[in-house]
């Protein structure tokens, strides 16, 4: 049965359908009637009727649109969409919203059937129609279409195209918070692996741009949903290191904010959030060291070491490497603070060496940190004039087992010179 036959069948016993059919056919034949209408308008006006109170069209009838009738006429989404296209071509203001909904519904059906290409095409048409909507719901409808198109296009066209749609949605003043939140969540999900890839490939400028966008998205989400705060703190902690290279104050401020967020999170759930707090404190200590704020560097790193020592005591395999990293950073600070910190330096380097030896057998990725810990251990003892045999043993192990790592991190000449010096003692 054709669409026109379906429509006429429904009109046979449905006044609402008959009214819509009559309206459609009037519009359809309007061009043919143009000459007749012109002739009527040019004819002399009839004498006024004393009982006439004005033209009938001046009265406003508040009739509810019968869009739902189309859903009864055509259960198949393809036929239903065609019906709405026909109606929207005649009465766009009245039927365009329903056409958009029908196109989105058809896209869902096509997606379920495995035809992603056709589904995205329907959403493209839905977007074209939605952009012509007026009124307060227009932006929300466009945002919803952009969300669905980005979701479906993700597997078909990749991250870039999906992100373009979500970024556009973020610029719309859509009043529907649910739609805005859904777009933001998807945007953050897509950005996350992009950032990791940029960092891994050493694309610092790109990584910083993506992280900045990611942080802004998460900040907006966290204002509505506090469960997004851990992700925001993670983003800020990473962003701080990248920003620091161009703007030290902005970079440090990002990490300070990450520390503040994680301190609040720890109050509610220390078991979950203590590792994150230690990571932020480690970064704050490192950046403070680079700014020569040694007091803040020492207190931040000492707290990070304390937290990570406790975590490593329960699960060394998970936290041993990060403990060694914070110990190495703390040792840098203690070296810079000079002789007044000698006792603390000897203790910290002893802890770092013990941690390094324990890690050496298990964690290949920790080898650069192990090499640095052995070097620091020997340096601290050479400066103090104590335990020189232990210092020589540490340097020998460094050169024999970690020579490649020592070369990679630029300390091989120091280690070689220290071995020669200790050999003449």
What would you say this structure looks like, in words?
The structure is a single chain. The protein is mainly alpha-helical. Helices cover 79% and strands 0% of the residues. It has helices at 3-11, 15-28, 34-42, 67-73, 77-90, 92-112, 116-130, 138-157, 159-170, 177-200, 204-224, 229-244, 248-268, 270-290, 294-314, 316-337, 342-360, 367-384, 388-401, 403-408, 412-423. Helix 14 (270-290) packs parallel to helix 16, helix 16 (316-337) runs antiparallel to helix 17 and helix 18 packs parallel to helix 21 (412-423). The longest helix has 24 residues, at 177-200. The radius of gyration is 35 Å and the shape is elongated. Mean pLDDT is 85; it is low at 50-56 and 61-67.
The class by helix and strand makeup works out as mainly alpha
Query: What about the largest sheet?
Result: none
Estimate what percentage of residues fall within beta strands: under 5%
Supply the number of helical segments.
Answer: 21
- Secondary-structure element series: HHHHHHHHHHHHHHHHHHHHH
Which spans have pLDDT < 50 for at least 5 consecutive residues?
A: 50-56, 61-67
User: Radius of gyration, rounded?
Assistant: 35 Å
Helix content: over 70%
Cα separation of the termini? 103 Å
Mean pLDDT: 85
- How many beta-strand runs? 0
General form: elongated
Sum this structure up briefly.
By secondary structure, this protein is mainly alpha-helical.
What features would you highlight for this structure?
mainly alpha, 425 residues, single chain, elongated, 21 helices
Element layout with pairings:
Elements: H1 3-11, H2 15-28, H3 34-42, H4 67-73, H5 77-90, H6 92-112, H7 116-130, H8 138-157, H9 159-170, H10 177-200, H11 204-224, H12 229-244, H13 248-268, H14 270-290, H15 294-314, H16 316-337, H17 342-360, H18 367-384, H19 388-401, H20 403-408, H21 412-423
């Amino acid at each position: 049965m054709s669409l026109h036959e379906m429509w006429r069948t429904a009109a046979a016993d449905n006044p609402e359908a008959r009214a819509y059919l009559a309206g459609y056919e009037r519009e359809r034949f309007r061009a043919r009637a143009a000459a007749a209408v012109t002739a009527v308008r040019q004819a002399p006006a009839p004498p006024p009727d004393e009982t006439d109170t004005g033209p009938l069209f001046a009265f406003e009838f508040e009739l509810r649109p019968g869009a739902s009738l189309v859903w009864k006429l055509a259960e198949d989404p393809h036929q239903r969409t065609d019906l709405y296209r026909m109606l929207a071509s005649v009465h766009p203001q009245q039927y365009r919203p329903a056409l958009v909904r029908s196109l989105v519904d058809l896209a869902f059906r096509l997606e379920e059937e495995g035809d992603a290409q056709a589904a995205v095409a329907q959403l493209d048409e839905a977007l074209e129609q939605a952009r012509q909507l007026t009124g307060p719901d227009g932006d929300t409808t466009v945002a919803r279409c952009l969300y669905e198109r980005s979701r479906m296009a993700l597997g078909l066209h990749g991250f870039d195209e999906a992100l373009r749609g979500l970024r556009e949605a973020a610029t719309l003043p859509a009043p529907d918070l649910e739609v805005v939140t859904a777009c933001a969540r998807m945007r953050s999900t897509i950005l996350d692996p992009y950032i990791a890839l940029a960092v891994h490939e050493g694309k610092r400028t790109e990584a910083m741009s993506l992280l900045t966008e990611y942080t802004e998205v998460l900040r907006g989400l966290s204002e509505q949903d506090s469960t997004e705060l851990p992700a925001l703190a993670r983003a800020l902690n990473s962003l701080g290191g990248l920003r620091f290279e161009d703007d030290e104050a902005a970079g440090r401020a990002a990490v300070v904010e990450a520390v503040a967020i994680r301190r609040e999170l720890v109050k509610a759930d220390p078991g979950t959030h203590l590792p994150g707090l230690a990571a932020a404190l480690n970064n704050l200590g490192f950046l403070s060291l680079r700014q020569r704020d040694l007091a803040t560097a020492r207190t931040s790193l000492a707290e990070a070491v304390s937290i990570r020592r406790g975590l490593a005591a329960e699960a060394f395999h998970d936290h041993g490497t990060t403990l060694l990293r914070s110990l190495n950073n703390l040792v840098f600070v203690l070296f810079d603070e000079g002789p007044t910190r000698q006792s603390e330096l000897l203790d910290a380097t002893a802890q770092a060496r013990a941690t390094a030896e324990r890690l050496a057998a298990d964690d290949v990725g920790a080898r650069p940190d192990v090499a640095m810990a052995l070097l620091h251990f020997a340096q601290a003892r050479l400066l103090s004039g104590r335990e020189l045999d232990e210092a020589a043993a540490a340097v020998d192990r460094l050169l024999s087992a970690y020579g490649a790592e020592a070369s990679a991190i630029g300390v091989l000449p120091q280690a070689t010179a220290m071995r020669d010096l200790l050999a003449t003692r």
